[in-house]
Amino acid sequence: MEIDVVRPQDLTPASLERWAQLQTGVLDSPFLSPQWTRAVDRAQSGGRRAIEVAVLKQDGREVGYFPARVGAYTAIPVGAPMCDYQALVAEPGVQVDPKALVQALGVHRLDFTHMLESQASFAAHARGRVLSHVVDVRNGYAAYEAERRAAGKSILKDSDKKRRKVEREVGEATFGAFSRSRTDFDRLLAWKSAQYKATGQTDIFQTEWTRGLLRDLFQSRDPDFGAVLFTLHFGDRLAAAHLHLHGRRTIHGWLIAHDPEFERYSPGILLFQDILRWMDETPYCRLDLGAGDYRFKRELANDGLWVNDGFVGLPSPAALARGAAYGVRRAAEALPLGRASDLPGKAMRRMDVWRGLR
User: Fold this and answer.
1) How far is Cα 356 from Cα 194, in angstroms, rounded to an integer?
2) Strand 61-70 and strand 173-176: pairing?
3) What are the backbone dihedrals phi and psi of residue 133, each rounded to the nearest 5 degrees, phi first?
4) How confident is the model at residue 58 (pLDDT cuts 50, 70, 90)?
5) What are phi and psi of 348, to 5 degrees?
6) pLDDT (0 to 100) of residue 355
7) Strand locations in the chain, DSSP E?
């Protein structure tokens, strides 16, 4: 297996087309597309780390692509902490020695946070797993609604009741898809920043490249890739807004927020329901809700993908440090310390967010 490393903007049109062709099955995510890698590269231009693409070749043919953001000693996912999937996009059956990949990228360690568990090449290097929730509506919304009802899930029925309630008490609920309202876009980001502050999380929008990336994707007119703004108004007031990433067939739930004054009506859930209904008339058949053990995700999802966190390391201090951090996390999680058992894992995740934003 030959591995060439190139910058995203240096990929030829033939390479970009081949990469897109390989995005079938579980690889059909906008986060695994060449457009995502190139968009992040533009947003981070001039940054401390470079984005590189490892191109796998067999007998002179390009058979796989693996992008990463490369620093002096470590490589991290492209667009982290805003990237919900990582994977080697390759022909079926193609595998790579992950340590050879690390060497080709010129680093001592490759970290991953949401690697598709189906990626056999990285399975031995996984340290944790979490379920990413997916809604499959390829048979249409009516069939999906019936399936959820048969599964004993009441979230759609409850949403219908709340929708009738808000229309009696506030005003008509109006759905918008592919909104170009900059005012609503800015309101969504303000709501998210307030949400991060209230929950003690890092506000990822305080970094210049994240704001630039969001603006670029919101303004995109590419039919196969970009960010789509969905809105829900109660009367003349914006009640909820979602900015989701879309590919050719998949919409990936990304930034979700609502007006706290309308909390009792669950406007964010109502908006998800509207999106699923709207998808009947579009090429999209999957709404990926991402990872996270939230009730609304469990109740809406009828499919899922397991993703792993972990790292691939060459003999080096960088690999030893990451291995030690995972060792502390594993030891703490095995102890009956209640919430304290989760602290090392939370500290690792917070540090990963900070590293990605630098």
Assistant:
1) 21
2) unpaired
3) -90, 135
4) very high
5) -65, -45
6) 87
7) 2-6, 50-58, 61-70, 74-76, 89-90, 109-116, 126-136, 173-176, 226-234, 237-246, 250-258, 286-291, 303-313
Cβ neighbors of 148 (< 8 A, separation 6 or more) are 155, 156, 299, 300, 302
pLDDT category at 4 given cuts 50, 70, 90 is very high
The sign of the CA dihedral 274, 276, 277, 281 is: positive
Instruction: Give the model's pLDDT for residue 117.
Output: 97
Taking the alpha carbons at both ends of the chain, their separation in whole angstroms is 33
Can you spell out the DSSP letters for 226-264? EEEEEEEEETTEEEEEEEEEE-SSEEEEEEEEE-GGGGG
Flag whether pLDDT at 47 surpasses 80.
no
**Do the bridges between strand 2-6 and strand 50-58 make them parallel or antiparallel, or are there none, so unpaired?**
antiparallel
Show Cβ contacts of residue 260 under 8 Å, excluding neighbours closer than 6 positions: none
Q: How many CB atoms lie within 10 A of CB 332?
A: 16
